[in-house]
Amino acid sequence: MDKSELHALISLLDDPDEEVFKQICVKLMSMGADVIPALESAWENSFDSVIQNRIENIIQKIQFDKINRDLKEWARPENQDLLEGALIVAKYQYPDLDEDKLRRQIAQVKQDIWLELNNNLTALEKVRVINHIIFDVHGFSGNTTNYHAPQNSYINNVLETKKGNPLSLSVIYAVIAQDLRIPVYGVNLPDHFILAYVEHSNAISGHDLGDRVLFYINPFSRGWVVSRKEIDAFLKQQRLDPRPEYYDPCSNLDIIRRLLRNLIHSYEKLGYPNKVEELSSMLLSLA
Protein backbone atom coordinates (compact mmCIF):
# COMPACT_ATOMS: atom_id res chain seq x y z
CA MET A 1 0.00 0.00 0.00
CA ASP A 2 1.43 3.37 -1.08
CA LYS A 3 0.98 5.71 1.91
CA SER A 4 1.34 8.87 -0.14
CA GLU A 5 -1.38 7.66 -2.53
CA LEU A 6 -3.59 6.75 0.43
CA HIS A 7 -3.26 10.18 2.04
CA ALA A 8 -3.88 11.84 -1.33
CA LEU A 9 -7.10 9.88 -1.74
CA ILE A 10 -8.25 10.71 1.79
CA SER A 11 -7.56 14.40 1.18
CA LEU A 12 -10.00 14.29 -1.74
CA LEU A 13 -12.94 12.96 0.28
CA ASP A 14 -14.44 16.43 0.44
CA ASP A 15 -14.68 16.68 -3.36
CA PRO A 16 -18.19 17.98 -4.20
CA ASP A 17 -18.29 15.99 -7.46
CA GLU A 18 -20.23 12.82 -6.66
CA GLU A 19 -18.58 10.85 -9.47
CA VAL A 20 -15.12 11.77 -8.22
CA PHE A 21 -16.10 10.69 -4.72
CA LYS A 22 -17.42 7.35 -5.99
CA GLN A 23 -14.07 6.67 -7.73
CA ILE A 24 -12.18 7.53 -4.55
CA CYS A 25 -14.48 5.29 -2.54
CA VAL A 26 -13.93 2.34 -4.90
CA LYS A 27 -10.17 2.83 -4.79
CA LEU A 28 -10.05 3.01 -0.99
CA MET A 29 -12.24 -0.07 -0.66
CA SER A 30 -9.96 -1.98 -3.02
CA MET A 31 -7.08 -1.39 -0.59
CA GLY A 32 -8.88 -3.43 2.08
CA ALA A 33 -8.86 -3.30 5.87
CA ASP A 34 -5.29 -1.96 6.04
CA VAL A 35 -6.56 1.54 5.23
CA ILE A 36 -8.95 1.69 8.19
CA PRO A 37 -6.45 3.15 10.73
CA ALA A 38 -5.65 6.01 8.33
CA LEU A 39 -9.34 6.63 7.72
CA GLU A 40 -10.06 6.63 11.45
CA SER A 41 -7.25 9.13 11.98
CA ALA A 42 -8.67 11.35 9.25
CA TRP A 43 -12.12 11.16 10.88
CA GLU A 44 -10.68 12.23 14.25
CA ASN A 45 -8.85 15.19 12.71
CA SER A 46 -11.79 16.44 10.68
CA PHE A 47 -14.50 18.84 11.83
CA ASP A 48 -16.50 18.47 8.62
CA SER A 49 -19.59 16.29 9.17
CA VAL A 50 -19.81 15.46 5.46
CA ILE A 51 -16.27 14.07 5.40
CA GLN A 52 -16.85 12.20 8.66
CA ASN A 53 -20.01 10.59 7.29
CA ARG A 54 -18.22 9.59 4.10
CA ILE A 55 -15.35 8.06 6.07
CA GLU A 56 -17.78 6.16 8.31
CA ASN A 57 -19.57 4.73 5.27
CA ILE A 58 -16.32 3.66 3.62
CA ILE A 59 -15.07 1.98 6.80
CA GLN A 60 -18.38 0.12 7.19
CA LYS A 61 -18.26 -1.08 3.58
CA ILE A 62 -14.65 -2.26 3.93
CA GLN A 63 -15.48 -4.13 7.15
CA PHE A 64 -18.57 -5.70 5.62
CA ASP A 65 -16.65 -6.84 2.55
CA LYS A 66 -14.05 -8.45 4.79
CA ILE A 67 -16.70 -10.25 6.83
CA ASN A 68 -18.28 -11.61 3.67
CA ARG A 69 -14.90 -12.84 2.41
CA ASP A 70 -14.12 -14.41 5.79
CA LEU A 71 -17.51 -16.12 5.84
CA LYS A 72 -17.03 -17.54 2.34
CA GLU A 73 -13.60 -18.86 3.35
CA TRP A 74 -15.05 -20.31 6.54
CA ALA A 75 -17.72 -22.13 4.54
CA ARG A 76 -15.06 -24.33 2.90
CA PRO A 77 -15.59 -27.83 4.36
CA GLU A 78 -12.16 -27.94 5.99
CA ASN A 79 -12.66 -24.58 7.76
CA GLN A 80 -16.06 -24.92 9.45
CA ASP A 81 -15.04 -24.49 13.08
CA LEU A 82 -18.20 -23.59 15.04
CA LEU A 83 -16.68 -20.97 17.32
CA GLU A 84 -14.88 -19.29 14.44
CA GLY A 85 -18.13 -19.09 12.47
CA ALA A 86 -19.96 -17.50 15.40
CA LEU A 87 -17.14 -14.97 15.85
CA ILE A 88 -17.26 -13.94 12.19
CA VAL A 89 -20.99 -13.29 12.50
CA ALA A 90 -20.43 -11.29 15.70
CA LYS A 91 -17.89 -9.10 13.93
CA TYR A 92 -20.68 -7.91 11.65
CA GLN A 93 -22.05 -5.86 14.55
CA TYR A 94 -18.88 -5.64 16.65
CA PRO A 95 -15.95 -5.33 14.18
CA ASP A 96 -13.48 -4.47 16.96
CA LEU A 97 -14.43 -7.25 19.36
CA ASP A 98 -11.60 -8.73 21.42
CA GLU A 99 -11.46 -12.28 20.07
CA ASP A 100 -8.73 -13.37 22.48
CA LYS A 101 -10.83 -12.22 25.44
CA LEU A 102 -13.79 -14.26 24.23
CA ARG A 103 -11.67 -17.35 23.75
CA ARG A 104 -10.29 -16.91 27.30
CA GLN A 105 -13.84 -16.67 28.68
CA ILE A 106 -14.79 -19.91 27.00
CA ALA A 107 -11.53 -21.56 28.07
CA GLN A 108 -12.25 -20.67 31.70
CA VAL A 109 -15.66 -22.35 31.61
CA LYS A 110 -14.09 -25.35 29.88
CA GLN A 111 -11.35 -25.56 32.52
CA ASP A 112 -13.89 -25.47 35.35
CA ILE A 113 -15.83 -28.33 33.75
CA TRP A 114 -12.69 -30.36 33.05
CA LEU A 115 -11.74 -30.25 36.74
CA GLU A 116 -15.03 -31.95 37.63
CA LEU A 117 -14.93 -34.67 34.98
CA ASN A 118 -13.49 -38.17 35.14
CA ASN A 119 -13.52 -41.22 32.88
CA ASN A 120 -15.94 -43.13 35.11
CA LEU A 121 -18.86 -40.76 34.57
CA THR A 122 -21.80 -41.79 32.41
CA ALA A 123 -23.08 -39.56 29.60
CA LEU A 124 -25.85 -38.19 31.82
CA GLU A 125 -23.42 -37.53 34.66
CA LYS A 126 -21.12 -35.61 32.32
CA VAL A 127 -24.05 -33.47 31.20
CA ARG A 128 -24.98 -32.77 34.82
CA VAL A 129 -21.42 -31.53 35.42
CA ILE A 130 -21.53 -29.31 32.33
CA ASN A 131 -24.93 -27.94 33.34
CA HIS A 132 -23.79 -27.19 36.87
CA ILE A 133 -20.72 -25.25 35.74
CA ILE A 134 -22.35 -23.35 32.85
CA PHE A 135 -25.66 -22.49 34.49
CA ASP A 136 -25.03 -22.56 38.25
CA VAL A 137 -21.40 -21.51 38.57
CA HIS A 138 -21.08 -19.15 35.58
CA GLY A 139 -24.71 -18.04 35.59
CA PHE A 140 -25.72 -18.46 31.96
CA SER A 141 -29.47 -18.45 31.29
CA GLY A 142 -32.05 -17.98 28.57
CA ASN A 143 -33.08 -14.40 27.84
CA THR A 144 -36.84 -14.71 28.28
CA THR A 145 -37.37 -10.95 28.69
CA ASN A 146 -35.95 -9.88 25.31
CA TYR A 147 -36.10 -13.21 23.49
CA HIS A 148 -35.97 -11.78 19.94
CA ALA A 149 -33.31 -9.10 20.59
CA PRO A 150 -30.43 -9.38 18.07
CA GLN A 151 -27.91 -9.16 20.93
CA ASN A 152 -28.95 -12.69 21.91
CA SER A 153 -27.40 -13.97 18.67
CA TYR A 154 -23.96 -12.37 19.03
CA ILE A 155 -21.68 -14.71 20.94
CA ASN A 156 -19.57 -11.91 22.46
CA ASN A 157 -22.67 -10.27 23.90
CA VAL A 158 -23.95 -13.60 25.27
CA LEU A 159 -20.61 -14.28 26.96
CA GLU A 160 -20.66 -10.78 28.46
CA THR A 161 -24.28 -10.70 29.69
CA LYS A 162 -24.61 -14.46 30.35
CA LYS A 163 -27.98 -14.37 28.57
CA GLY A 164 -28.86 -15.72 25.15
CA ASN A 165 -31.38 -17.48 22.95
CA PRO A 166 -31.59 -21.27 22.40
CA LEU A 167 -29.14 -21.19 19.49
CA SER A 168 -26.43 -19.01 21.03
CA LEU A 169 -26.49 -20.93 24.31
CA SER A 170 -26.32 -24.18 22.33
CA VAL A 171 -23.31 -22.91 20.37
CA ILE A 172 -21.40 -22.11 23.56
CA TYR A 173 -22.43 -25.41 25.14
CA ALA A 174 -21.45 -27.45 22.05
CA VAL A 175 -18.11 -25.67 21.57
CA ILE A 176 -17.11 -26.37 25.17
CA ALA A 177 -18.36 -29.97 25.15
CA GLN A 178 -16.63 -30.82 21.87
CA ASP A 179 -13.37 -29.28 23.10
CA LEU A 180 -13.64 -31.68 26.03
CA ARG A 181 -14.24 -34.56 23.58
CA ILE A 182 -17.83 -34.94 24.73
CA PRO A 183 -19.95 -35.74 21.62
CA VAL A 184 -22.62 -33.04 21.76
CA TYR A 185 -23.92 -31.55 18.50
CA GLY A 186 -26.61 -29.15 17.35
CA VAL A 187 -30.07 -30.22 16.22
CA ASN A 188 -32.10 -27.98 13.90
CA LEU A 189 -35.41 -28.32 15.70
CA PRO A 190 -37.88 -25.72 14.34
CA ASP A 191 -38.48 -22.72 16.63
CA HIS A 192 -36.23 -24.12 19.35
CA PHE A 193 -32.64 -25.17 18.73
CA ILE A 194 -31.38 -28.02 20.94
CA LEU A 195 -28.42 -30.39 21.24
CA ALA A 196 -27.95 -34.14 20.86
CA TYR A 197 -25.62 -36.32 22.89
CA VAL A 198 -24.44 -39.13 20.61
CA GLU A 199 -22.41 -42.24 21.11
CA HIS A 200 -18.76 -41.28 20.84
CA SER A 201 -17.62 -40.22 17.37
CA ASN A 202 -14.50 -38.47 16.13
CA ALA A 203 -16.37 -36.26 13.70
CA ILE A 204 -19.78 -35.33 12.46
CA SER A 205 -20.75 -35.62 8.82
CA GLY A 206 -24.24 -34.72 7.67
CA HIS A 207 -26.88 -36.75 9.49
CA ASP A 208 -24.92 -39.98 9.92
CA LEU A 209 -25.09 -39.77 13.73
CA GLY A 210 -28.88 -39.79 13.96
CA ASP A 211 -29.13 -43.46 14.89
CA ARG A 212 -26.62 -42.95 17.70
CA VAL A 213 -28.34 -40.16 19.62
CA LEU A 214 -28.57 -41.14 23.30
CA PHE A 215 -30.65 -38.15 24.41
CA TYR A 216 -31.20 -34.46 23.77
CA ILE A 217 -30.23 -31.36 25.77
CA ASN A 218 -32.08 -28.04 25.98
CA PRO A 219 -29.55 -25.33 26.98
CA PHE A 220 -32.27 -22.66 27.02
CA SER A 221 -33.82 -24.59 29.94
CA ARG A 222 -30.55 -24.90 31.88
CA GLY A 223 -29.48 -28.08 30.08
CA TRP A 224 -32.69 -30.02 30.66
CA VAL A 225 -32.40 -33.53 29.22
CA VAL A 226 -35.05 -34.28 26.59
CA SER A 227 -36.21 -37.60 25.15
CA ARG A 228 -37.22 -38.36 21.58
CA LYS A 229 -40.84 -38.70 22.73
CA GLU A 230 -40.76 -35.13 24.02
CA ILE A 231 -39.56 -33.93 20.61
CA ASP A 232 -42.43 -35.92 19.05
CA ALA A 233 -44.86 -34.09 21.31
CA PHE A 234 -43.28 -30.71 20.53
CA LEU A 235 -43.55 -31.28 16.78
CA LYS A 236 -47.15 -32.44 17.14
CA GLN A 237 -47.93 -29.27 19.08
CA GLN A 238 -46.32 -27.23 16.27
CA ARG A 239 -48.29 -29.27 13.71
CA LEU A 240 -45.10 -30.35 11.98
CA ASP A 241 -44.25 -33.70 10.44
CA PRO A 242 -41.47 -35.60 12.27
CA ARG A 243 -38.70 -35.19 9.68
CA PRO A 244 -35.27 -36.81 10.29
CA GLU A 245 -33.52 -33.41 10.34
CA TYR A 246 -35.56 -32.47 13.42
CA TYR A 247 -33.90 -35.31 15.34
CA ASP A 248 -30.46 -35.75 13.77
CA PRO A 249 -27.31 -33.72 14.47
CA CYS A 250 -26.74 -30.96 11.94
CA SER A 251 -23.54 -29.48 10.53
CA ASN A 252 -21.77 -26.35 11.73
CA LEU A 253 -22.69 -24.78 8.41
CA ASP A 254 -26.37 -25.35 9.20
CA ILE A 255 -25.88 -23.73 12.61
CA ILE A 256 -24.29 -20.55 11.23
CA ARG A 257 -26.98 -20.31 8.55
CA ARG A 258 -29.61 -20.47 11.28
CA LEU A 259 -27.71 -17.88 13.30
CA LEU A 260 -27.91 -15.49 10.35
CA ARG A 261 -31.60 -16.24 9.82
CA ASN A 262 -32.26 -15.46 13.48
CA LEU A 263 -30.54 -12.10 13.10
CA ILE A 264 -32.47 -11.32 9.92
CA HIS A 265 -35.71 -12.04 11.75
CA SER A 266 -34.67 -9.88 14.72
CA TYR A 267 -33.79 -6.88 12.56
CA GLU A 268 -36.96 -7.29 10.50
CA LYS A 269 -38.99 -6.99 13.71
CA LEU A 270 -37.00 -3.90 14.72
CA GLY A 271 -37.33 -2.27 11.29
CA TYR A 272 -33.69 -2.17 10.09
CA PRO A 273 -33.94 -2.94 6.35
CA ASN A 274 -30.24 -2.18 5.69
CA LYS A 275 -29.14 -4.78 8.22
CA VAL A 276 -31.66 -7.27 6.85
CA GLU A 277 -30.20 -6.75 3.38
CA GLU A 278 -26.59 -7.11 4.54
CA LEU A 279 -27.27 -10.22 6.63
CA SER A 280 -29.23 -11.73 3.74
CA SER A 281 -26.15 -11.17 1.58
CA MET A 282 -24.04 -12.97 4.20
CA LEU A 283 -26.51 -15.84 4.19
CA LEU A 284 -26.18 -16.12 0.43
CA SER A 285 -22.42 -16.46 0.93
CA LEU A 286 -23.16 -19.76 2.65
CA ALA A 287 -25.50 -21.07 -0.05
Fraction of residues in β-strands: 5-15%
> What radius of gyration results from the CA coordinates?
22 Å
How helix-rich are the residues, as a percent range?
55-70%
Q: What class, by secondary structure content? A: alpha+beta
Largest sheet: 4 strands, antiparallel
Q: What is the oligomeric state here? A: single chain
Query: What's the structural domain tally?
Result: 2
What's the overall average pLDDT, rounded?
91
How many beta-strand elements? Answer: 6
Report the uncertain regions: 203-207
- From N to C, what is the helix and strand string? HHHHHHHEHEHEEEEHHH
Taken from the alpha-carbon principal axes, the silhouette is elongated
Number of separate helices: 12
N-to-C CA distance: 33 Å
Strand order of the largest sheet: 3-4-5-6
Plain-language structure description:
Helix content is about 55%, strand content about 10%. With about 290 residues, it is an alpha+beta fold. The model is unreliable at about 205 (pLDDT under 50). It has helices at about 5-10, 20-30, 35-45, 50-75, 80-95, 100-115, 125-135, 155-160, 165-180, 230-235, 250-270, 275-285, and strands at about 140, 165, 185, 195-200, 215-220, 225. It has two domains: about 5-75, Leucine-rich Repeat Variant (Alpha Horseshoe), CATH 1.25.10; about 80-285, no CATH class. The strands form two sheets. A four-stranded antiparallel β-sheet has the order 3-4-5-6. Strands 1-2 form a two-stranded parallel ribbon. It contains twelve helices and six strands. It is elongated, with a radius of gyration of 22 Å.
